[in-house]
Design goal:
16 helices, transferase, 14 strands, Chloramphenicol Acetyltransferase, O-acyltransferase_WSD1_N, six-stranded mixed β-sheet
Length: 476
C-alpha cells in the first residue's frame, strides 16, 4: 500500500507559501579536530547514517486530482551531495557574518521535487571552526517515524580515528535499491482503495481540489488536538504588537547565550524553575527592544507567547526514549509582562503562569527529555512548530520554545560541538520565533525574524544579555 502522508503532515505542505517556508533548522558550531573536518568528511558521515533514516531518501508525490493525500516515494535518482552542501565565509568569518548567511539559507523553501532536507557545512569561521546549518521540512520530521538528521550525526563519543580515511567505504546508500516510482494509474488506484476504507475522505479530497488547499490544511490543523480547539474558543485575541506583521520573503537571524549556572543562581535567589528564568529573560529582552523602538509601555502591557510544552499521554507511567516520541507537544499561551519594570516581579508573574500550565498538563521533566539518545531538541522543535501552527496567529504574538539539551559533549565525527542555536520557522503573521536550548553548561537563544519587521534583531539579541545581567544584579 501507498505510504501516505498524514493529514497533519500534508497540511504543512498545503500551508507553505514562497514567503512562509515550513522547515525547522539549527546552527551548530564545531571545533575542527587535528584530523580535520571538511565537506568530504561530513558527506561521508551523513552517507553512513542515511540507512537509519529511510524517509530522507524519499520525496513527496501528489495524487492526480487530489483524490487522496500525497504519498512518500523513494527517490531513484537520490544524490546525497545535492542535500549536503558547502558554503564558506571570507576568513576569519564572524558570528554576525555566519548569522547573515543562516538567514539567507533558511529563507529559501526546500525543493519539492527532492527529499525535503538540506545540510550545509560552512567553513572559514574564526579559529578554524566550522558550522553545520540544517533545514528539515515539518512534513518530514514528525517526531514519531522520522527524527531530525542531527540526532544521528551527533554522538556522545568521537567516531573514526585521526589516521582513518573516513571518506572511503562510507556510503551504504549506494547499495540501496529503490522501489520503482508509481505511475499515475497506480497512484489513482491506491487513492481509490484507501478512500473506500474511509468513504467520507474522498469527498473532502475532491472538494479540496476545487477549493484553496489552504482551507483544507487549516481544517486539519484545527482538528489536530483538543487543546488547540479549546484554547481557540476560550482565549481572547492577543494584544496588538509589532511582532504581528505579515512576513516578507527575507529573514534575519541572531544568537545569544548565557551560562546555565547564572540562570541556576537566579532561580536559587528568586524562585521558580530554570524554564521560568528563561522566559523572564525573553520578557526582559522584549521589553528593552520595545522601549528602544519608542513604544509606550503601560505597567499592565503584555506580549503573548505560544510556549509549546511537552506532555505525557494520560496513561503514561514512565518515560523512555520511545516514550517521548509517543507523547505530544501542547500549545500553551503565556502572557509575558513586558510592562512590568521590576525584573523579579516579571519572573514571579511568569512562574505563576507557568505553574498553572504545568498543573493542567502532565509535562515531561527536563531531565527525562535529555535522556533521549542523540540531540533530542532538534526533533522537539519540529513538534513545537507543529503546535504553533495548530493555533490561529491572532491568539499569540511570538513563539518561544525552550527545550533542554544534553550537558555532555557531543561530536560530529571527531569534531566537538561547541554551541548550537535552534531556528524555528515563522508563521504567516508572526515576525519572530525564539528557540532556546541548553548544551554543556550554556543556554543558547536562536532568534529568527522577518527582515522587514525585525531589521533590528541584533538589538533584541543584545537585550537578552542585558536581561540576564539585570536579573543577576537584582537582590529582590
Amino acid at each position: 500500500m501507498a505510504d501516505r502522508l498524514s493529514a497533519l503532515d500534508a497540511s504543512f505542505l498545503y500551508l507553505e507559501e514562497p514567503f512562509v517556508p515550513m522547515h525547522v533548522g539549527s546552527v551548530a558550531v564545531l571545533r575542527r579536530p587535528r584530523s580535520g573536518f571538511d565537506y568530504a568528511r561530513l558527506l561521508a558521515l551523513v552517507s553512513r547514517r542515511l540507512s537509519y533514516l529511510p524517509r530522507y531518501r524519499q520525496y513527496v508525490e501528489s495524487v492526480p486530482g487530489h483524490l487522496a493525500r500525497p504519498v512518500w516515494v523513494e527517490d531513484g535518482d537520490f544524490d546525497v551531495s545535492y542535500h549536503v552542501r558547502r558554503s564558506a565565509l571570507p576568513a576569519p568569518g564572524t558570528d554576525e557574518q555566519l548569522f547573515e548567511l543562516v538567514a539567507r539559507l533558511l529563507a529559501r523553501p526546500l525543493d519539492r521535487d527532492r527529499p525535503l532536507w538540506e545540510l550545509y557545512v560552512v567553513e572559514g569561521l574564526e579559529d578554524g571552526r566550522v558550522a553545520l546549518v540544517t533545514k528539515n521540512h515539518q512534513a518530514l520530521v514528525d517526531g514519531t517515524a522520522t527524527l531530525d538528521l542531527g540526532q544521528l550525526i551527533l554522538d556522545a563519543e568521537p567516531t573514526g580515528s585521526d589516521s582513518d580515511d573516513e571518506t572511503e567505504g562510507a556510503a551504504p546508500w549506494t547499495e540501496w535499491t529503490p522501489s520503482s516510482r508509481p505511475g499515475r494509474a497506480r497512484l489513482l488506484l491506491d487513492a481509490i482503495t484507501d478512500s473506500l476504507r474511509r468513504p467520507g475522505e474522498i469527498v473532502d479530497n475532491v472538494r479540496s481540489a476545487a477549493r484553496d488547499l489552504t482551507t483544507t490544511a487549516e481544517r486539519a490543523l484545527d482538528t489536530a488536538g483538543d487543546v488547540a480547539t479549546t484554547v481557540r474558543s476560550l482565549v481572547r485575541p492577543a494584544p496588538r504588537s509589532p511582532l504581528n506583521a505579515r512576513v516578507s520573503g527575507g529573514r534575519v537571524f541572531a544568537g545569544a547565550s548565557a551560562a546555565l549556572d547564572d540562570l541556576r543562581d537566579i532561580r536559587r535567589r528568586h524562585g521558580g524553575t530554570i524554564n521560568d528564568v528563561v522566559f523572564a529573560v525573553v520578557t526582559g529582552a522584549l521589553r528593552q527592544w520595545l522601549l528602544s523602538r519608542g513604544s509606550s509601555l503601560e505597567q499592565t502591557a503584555t506580549v503573548r507567547a505560544l510556549a509549546p510544552l511537552a506532555v505525557r499521554a494520560p496513561d503514561d507511567v514512565g518515560f523512555s526514549s520511545v516514550g517521548l516520541l509517543d507523547n505530544r507537544v501542547d500549545p500553551c499561551l503565556v502572557d509575558l509582562p513586558v510592562g512590568e519594570p521590576h525584573p523579579v516581579l516579571r519572573l514571579q508573574h511568569i512562574a505563576h503562569a507557568m505553574a498553572e500550565q504545568v498543573r493542567a498538563r502532565r509535562s515531561v521533566a527536563a531531565r527525562a527529555m535529555v535522556r533521549v539518545s542523540g540531540f533530542a531538541p532538534a526533533t522537539m522543535y519540529s513538534l513545537a512548530a507543529r503546535a504553533a501552527n495548530s493555533l490561529s496567529g491572532r491568539l499569540f504574538n511570538v513563539v518561544v520554545a525552550n527545550t533542554p539539551g544534553p550537558q555532555h559533549r557531543l561530536y560530529a565525527g571527531r569534531a566537538p560541538l561547541e554551541r548550537i542555536y535552534p531556528v524555528l520557522p515563522l508563521a504567516r503573521e508572526q515576525a519572530l520565533a525564539v528557540g532556546i536550548t541548553s548544551y554543556e553548561g550554556n543556554v543558547y537563544f536562536g532568534l529568527n525574524g522577518d527582515r522587514k519587521a525585525l531589521s533590528d534583531i541584533t538589538v533584541l539579541a543584545g537585550a537578552v544579555t542585558e536581561a540576564i545581567e539585570e536579573l543577576k544584579g537584582t537582590n529582590g
